[in-house]
Amino acid sequence: QVQLVESGGGLVQAGGSLRLSCTASGRIFSAAIGTMGWYRQAPGKQRELVATITSGGTTNYADSLKGRFTISRDSAKNTAYLQMHSLKPEDTAVYYCNAYDRITGLEVWGQGTLVTVSS
User: What does pLDDT average to over the chain?
Assistant: First the structure.
């Protein structure tokens, strides 16, 4: 079964940048991982889409985040990245990685990594 581990969260000042990483491990090979994505959940709010990327590299972003956030992946490393620029206090949230496991047909979630943007 695929497990996802996120890293790269932390505290950053408004206007700063962070890069999150999400690595898939377990009984996998690169072709077993389909679309990967990042979602976030701010305190008191529902989880929302940040960005997704297919195994072929097609990306999709939340409209409000286009231009500031960039998703990418290194399929050889089973890793997805989220580069975040010009961070705002409203970007403060727990960021979750998501991946589609083609073997089981299930979506897998990471444990989340906290991003805090101070004003």
Answer: 94
Cα–Cα distance, 11 to 7 (Å, whole number): 13
The single-letter code of the amino acid at 49 is: L
Q: Are 71 and 38 in contact (CB under 8 A)?
A: yes
**CA–CA dist 95, 8 (Å, integer):** 10
| Confidence label for 27 from pLDDT (cuts 50, 70 and 90) | low
Residue listed under structure tokens 């000042």: 13
Share of the chain above pLDDT 70, in %: 97
Can you give the pLDDT at residue 103?
87
Burial class (CB in 10 A: 0-12, 13-18, 19+), 109: middle
Query: Which two three-digit tokens encode residue 28?
Result: 């996998």
Q: Are 3 and 104 in contact (CB under 8 A)?
A: no
